[in-house]
Amino acid sequence: xxxxxxxxxxxxxxxxxxxxxxxxxxxxxxxxxxxxxxxxxxxxxxxxxxxxxxxxxxxxxxxxxxxxxxxxxxxxxxxxxxxxxxxxxxxxxxxxxxxxxxxxxxxxxxxxxxxxxxxxxxxxxxxxxxxxxxxxxxxxxxxxxxxxxxxxxxxxxxxxxxxxxxxxxxxxxxxxxxxxxxxxxxxxxxxxxxxxxxxxxxxxxxxxxxxxxxxxxxxxxxxxxxxxxxxxxxxxxxxxxxxxxxxxxxxxxxxxxxxxxxxxxxxxxxxxxxxxxxxxxxxxxxxxxxxxxxxxxxxxxxxxxxxxxxxxxxxxxxxxxxxxxxxxxxxxxxxxxxxxxxxxxxxxxxxxxxxxxxxxxxxxxxxxxxxxxxxxxxxxxxxxxxxxxxxxxxxxxxxxxxxxx
Length: 405
Prior knowledge:
Keywords: Acyltransferase, Transferase. The chain contains eleven helices and 19 strands. By secondary structure, it is α+β, with helices and mostly antiparallel strands. It folds into three domains: 2-110, Gcn5-related N-acetyltransferase (GNAT) (Aminopeptidase, 3-Layer(aba) Sandwich); 134-291, 3-Layer(aba) Sandwich (Aminopeptidase), CATH 3.40.630; 301-393, SCP2 sterol-binding domain (Nonspecific Lipid-transfer Protein, Chain A, 2-Layer Sandwich).
């Protein structure tokens, strides 16, 4: 087996091999504009081949920015299209590609790789841990009344089909609003301009027909949007709501919940701490479902990762971190003062012992260290350290990721 980088000339064989690995057929030719793979960066893609050159596996990465707690933005690799042909599975192909890819990511200076996990049994052994979570909310229209405290928000809402908005304003409105949102939201990923330009991804990035409710502030500047469809049966489904503050998010929620000829509203992929049920007269008017993980994080430079994000408590922890996949082991003294951290090697006795995948899960503040201690994943070496770890690793805002890749 060999692993080689790809070029633009490899796009067709790459797309065909990737689809074959998942038992699917491409929706169109590899060079078709608007397909989700239109945003692939072929200089960051890998092909696994036999010694004779026949393709047997694929892996790729996007160049994203990830927002850390404290509105710190860092470059990361967005791992995607990892697949092996059924004829060559369980022969070490995926492991070889993952090891090759992580070596390249580290060489580029990216402190982490992230992915959306297709099989939770696979990616933990490569060092990835679930770090953000999401759920679906469904509200029946007859239960959608807001409590009196939530009056109309300032600003205005304009509704346009997405193709009209793109013609009128060049597609820059959504791109600009999303960029403002993601820079303040821990766990959010950037959406590079190329994604919007070629319509790659899921709505509203893709060219799929959608209505856009665009919120503008009193000065007429767009500061939020909701992308949605309405079925003949009366279900309004919101693909995503992007808002630069809670008041705008509430205004957009009120708009879709007040939509005529609708019997129920479904909000896809919302954070676990979404406040809507607390805003309604009927607390039970929101039905929750389809909760699950979304963004998985894999740290590649532990000291740099820990000193880059912001912190909301002071304290000191000795972390003993093992990385079985890359064969690495380090003991780190983490010292946090006034929102910033120092992290240096130490030979002191550890406070917590954990796998790099578990460190990835707690890194953004979406998973409490105490949860992983109770689960038996993280070992706490003395009383009191768990409460300190929970206090240190919490975020000022629950991490959330909407971007699909």
